[in-house]
Design brief:
With 392 residues, the protein is α+β, with helices and mostly antiparallel strands. It contains nine helices and 23 strands. The radius of gyration is 24 Å and the shape is globular. The termini are far apart.
Length: 392
């Protein structure tokens, strides 16, 4: 790569670009100068950063991108009607459109960022090109941009936008831990995977009301009621006062990390390949079960018939070097089911290869080895079996 001549040096010499005459047409027909937008971007970043450093806010990340809740947006940023706003290497990205895996909007340079944008880095393409003839043009404080997002990232974007949505008033009355989680997921249409360890403590009612909170805060307070659980979106873990969120498959995960070791959790099993073609979710779920059962107990014959609705979406999956939990994610994202639930035995009873036994929500009777492990796939607002939840 050729050596570049850079026309700006540090924050002091970057200020001239904030007073350039470049203008951007706003959606309402008015004109917004680069200076105004750059100042607003700096204010937006500072507003959130102060709250973050004070422990009043949380970090929601996807890779290097840190998302900024709408309550911290300065007015000139808000006037652009963004879909969302996030910081990229301290510069501020204002997302105005998202379609067909292409994100578009304004990329605004910050006076405190040492990063100089370059076409192709992190899948960004800028207009005008900020680096021309091997030189960086300091006058381009506000750039139009396009950024390629693959399908898994776009699903994560959708989930993140829902979780950070502000709710004015919300009340919840639930019979137990699982009821609370699934009601919130249904009310706000959040795809979710739940791992629950059977215990009497999780079978007590939960009632609460919230005002002016984000949806993620509702989930966090529910989880705080039952020690030993965490909320995960991909590999990120929600913990106070500061936690980071990373995306995976557009699914919110509730996991009992302190209650069951990974070595006992069949969901962590690695699969070299899992492939289905144009199959309903019932068939995919059954095939996954047989696959996992063979790993735990050794190869054996499996028989049975599967009923399916004719209008149920058909799944095409070809997953390599994946895990069982990731296949379940793909099932609920691609079918009419929206939540997967796995219940583990609370008495540390294990089965083949040392994996924790699972239970059915339909009752508290032991599940035979041939049916292990078990899980439920449910729709939002669908009544599912609660016999196990009602027994203490």
């Amino acid at each position: 790569m050729p050596r570049q001549s850079i026309f700006i040096f540090g924050a002091v010499l970057l200020f001239p670009m904030l007073v350039s005459g470049q203008t951007d047409k706003m959606p309402n027909g008015g004109m917004q100068s680069s200076r105004e937008l750059a100042g607003a971007a700096f204010e937006t970043y500072n507003n959130f950063n102060r709250a973050f450093l004070a422990g009043e806010e949380i970090g929601k990340r996807e890779g290097d991108d840190l998302y900024t809740p709408s309550k911290y947006w300065a007015e000139p940023i808000r006037a652009l009607n963004p879909i969302k706003v996030y910081s990229h290497r301290v510069n501020v990205v204002v997302v105005l459109r998202f379609q067909n895996d292409i994100e578009e909007g304004k990329y605004i340079l910050s006076v405190i960022s040492s990063y100089l944008p370059m076409n192709g880095v992190d899948r960004f393409e800028y207009t005008p090109n900020p680096q021309r003839d091997n030189k960086f043009y300091a006058g381009d404080a506000v750039l139009d941009y396009k950024r390629i997002r693959d399908r898994s990232i776009s699903a994560n974007d959708d989930l993140l936008s829902r979780l950070t949505m502000q709710v004015q008033n919300y009340s919840l009355s639930a019979n137990n831990f699982l009821d609370a989680l699934t009601k919130v997921a249904a009310d706000f249409q959040i795809p979710m995977g739940v791992e629950w360890v059977d215990s009497s403590e999780a079978k007590v009612p939960f009632t609460h009301s919230w005002n002016n909170v984000m949806i993620e805060d509702i989930f966090a307070q529910i989880i705080a009621k039952w020690p030993g659980y965490e909320i995960q979106v991909g590999k990120g873990v929600w913990k106070q006062p500061v936690y980071q969120v990373q995306m995976r498959n557009g699914v919110l995960h509730v996991v009992p990390t302190e209650l069951i070791p990974d070595r006992q959790n069949f969901l962590k099993l690695g699969l070299s390949r899992f492939q289905v073609h144009q199959q309903p979710f019932e068939m995919v779920s059954a095939q996954l079960h047989d696959f996992v059962n063979d790993i735990i107990f050794g190869p054996q014959g499996h028989a049975g018939s599967i009923a399916s609705m004719p209008d149920e979406p058909k799944l095409d999956l070809d997953l390599r070097d994946t895990k069982v939990e990731e296949v379940l994610d793909k099932i609920i994202v691609g079918s009419s089911r929206n939540i997967w639930i796995v219940v583990f035995s609370g008495n540390s009873e294990t089965m083949g290869a040392g994996f924790r036994r699972t239970l059915s929500l339909m009752g508290n009777s032991p599940i035979a080895d041939a049916q292990q492990p078990v899980w439920d796939l449910v729709r939002w607002r669908e009544a599912f079996p609660t016999v196990l939840l009602e027994s203490k």
